Amino acid sequence: MLDGVSKRFADGTTAVRDVTLTIADREFVILVGPSGCGKSTTLNMIAGLERISEGELRIDGRRMNERPPRDRDIAMVFQSYALYPHMTVRENIAFPLKLARMPKTEAAAKVRRTAELLDLTEHLDRKPAALSGGQRQRVAMGRAIVRNPKAFLMDEPLSNLDAKLRLQMRTAIARLQKTLGTTTVYVTHDQTEAMTLGDRIVIMDSGLVQQVGTPQELYDHPANLFVAGFLGSPPMNTLPAEVTSDGLATVLGTIPYGSRLRRAVLPHQVVAGIRPEDFQETPAGASFTGTVDLLESTGAEQLAYFTFAAGLSFERDGPPQVVARLGSRSGLRAGEPATLWFNPDAVQVFDPATGANLTPRVPRPGRPGG
Amino acid sequence: MNRLALWLCAPATVVMLAVTGWPILYSVLLSLRRADLRFPQDQEWIGLANYATVLSSPYWWTAFTVTLLITVVSVTIELVLGMAVALVMYRTVTGRGMVRTLVLIPYGIVTVAAAYGWKYAFTPGTGWLTGHAAPLTDPAGAIAIIILAEVWKTTPFMALLLLTGLALVPEELLRAASVDGATRWERFTRVTLPLMRPAILVALLFRTLDAFRIFDNIYVLTGGAQRTSSVSIIAYHNLIGGLNLGIGSTMSVLILVSVALLAALYVRVLPR
Ligand SMILES: Nc1ncnc2c1ncn2[C@@H]1O[C@H](COP(=O)(O)OP(=O)(O)OP(=O)(O)O)[C@@H](O)[C@H]1O
Ligand SMILES: [Mg+2]
């Protein structure tokens, strides 16, 4: 558990500001955010590799701030794997046991079991330099799990692998974590990894925690524009909107208030957000018409891009654009006008100044729970 | 193409042969002759007789032992001290340039000048490091002081070589080791040292070869008296003092052979 933890570096940069987070036993927590937002720094503070400038870190209720890493019983997997090049795979995996002065036969048995679990048995006597990226990654995992620590910390463990291997290892890690049931804090900047792996996601930006919750919660109820734009691919469409008596005036036309928004107290100007998959071709609810200027097909689905002449503008990044995610057999054609429909209740509104989500929290249409 | 390459290398090769190859060859030739400048008429080819003379001489073997002793002891101390200094230099955050400059000062001072400094420091009556004792006149004391002068002068060089090796140890490996449960000492012995092995061996190689040829410190401090002569000192005494070119050259060739053997030994343990 982290309690108001902050990190200031010697040069005055505040990398992490007042992070408070309680992690349950056996939980898989993902720290996600753009590059430089302080994820690694947070992880290093938990590991004891960076001094905590402010706040308290407790593990099992005991204050850990002053304890060196080796007294925290935490294992870490580094982005570069950090394997010891002068040791064989066997020695690498056995290293933490050796340091813990575990009897040789017991250690050897543990190393063997770990190698079997990770399919490394035939590489045990090779040096890391003679292994492929995926094998090195597994050795790094092996070195972490062999000692059965209280928690795993992983700092972008998959970012040096190619796309296919990354997918394989992602599921392997998820399965491993479920089998071992070890509390895990996993850092990534990849939102897909975050969404698929974690029990809970912690989204950070510039050293601040933006939102904490299950992947679905964060996706359905982003606390602010940053979270809305970070999760989902393509991200949520955001459009400047003016609040009028009949609805939200946007470049899409006026979006009528759904049952949710009717109850909200809104400022004069807001940002309306709608997910690409909330559009459909079959008439229902509200609609808009525009010209498809680009159609991308991934085989399973199509992404239709609409660009509008700049209307209301308090956004600086170019003319407003809307992306819709449609089935692969949509009748849309690039360069031709099309009409798409959406449920007004799927629209969320954000404060343009603070980015905060102003939508009242009620279950989203068409999805149980929330 | 190939011919051009040869032509391009030719000038350097010729210069090398002229300034190092020829003198070495000439020493070898001299070592096979009776060539004593006190008896210029009495010169002839005598085969390996000079080698037999030198290798059966107790003076040579005393000098050889003294040289080995000085080499082993001073290089060992330099390695330990040099490593400590390198670690300090590596970890220093404030005034890095200042620390490095200060550490290097002894290496920048001419050996002979520094040797005279040590000699005066240990002169009975006036020296600041000795009372009325005369450590330089007793073999053990003299050798200790020679080693001290040697260590003082070349530790910075050792430290500098080791510093480059330290910089090659990835910070992340040390972090990984501390998470794996290593103490500071274990990180040093199990990660830093093994990864520095090539740098350490190169530093040892340089320093051993250098130390084996020790001359100036001994020349100034004792002149080789009290059984403190190194092999280079007795070669010098025979060659320049005794004007015996044959014996002097034989000793020089033997020093060359010893150094070559030492180098071969190191190269053998050095990873490719
Ligand atoms: N030793 C340091 N001294 C000063 N500033 C630092 C130091 N280390 C990191 N920072 C700064 O702290 C901030 C957070 O760094 P951190 O490494 O935690 O980012 P990150 O979220 O892990 O990014 P990435 O995804 O690129 O790994 C960055 O702005 C970085 O410049
Ligand atoms: Mg990072």
Provide structural commentary.
The complex is a heterodimer of chains A (370) and B (272). By secondary structure, chain A is α+β, with helices and mostly antiparallel strands. Chain A contains 8 helices and 20 strands. Chain A has helices at residues 39-47, 89-99, 104-117, 133-145, 163-180, 191-197, 215-220, 225-230; strands spanning 2-8, 14-21, 28-32, 54-59, 62-63, 74-77, 151-155, 183-188, 200-205, 208-213, 237-243, 248-250, 253-255, 269-274, 279-280, 286-297, 301-307, 321-327, 337-342, 348-350. Chain A has a 6-stranded mixed sheet with strand order 6-7-8-3-9-10, sandwiched between helices. A 5-stranded antiparallel sheet of chain A has the order 13-12-11-14-20. A 5-stranded antiparallel sheet of chain A has the order 15-19-16-17-18, with no helix packed on it. In chain A, strand 7, helix 5 (163-180) and strand 8 (183-188) form a beta-alpha-beta unit. The mean pLDDT of chain A is 87. Chain B has 272 residues and is mainly α. Helices cover 75% and strands 1% of the residues of chain B. Chain B has helices at residues 2-31, 49-55, 58-91, 96-108, 111-121, 139-167, 171-179, 184-212, 216-221, 231-241, 245-269, and strands at 33-34, 44-45. The longest helix of chain B is centred in the first third of the chain and has 34 residues, at 58-91. The mean pLDDT of chain B is 89. Classes of the chains: A alpha+beta (370), B mainly alpha (272). At the A-B interface, strand 6 and helix 2 of A face helix 7 and helix 8 of B. The site of magnesium ion (MG) has 3 residues of chain A, from helix 1.
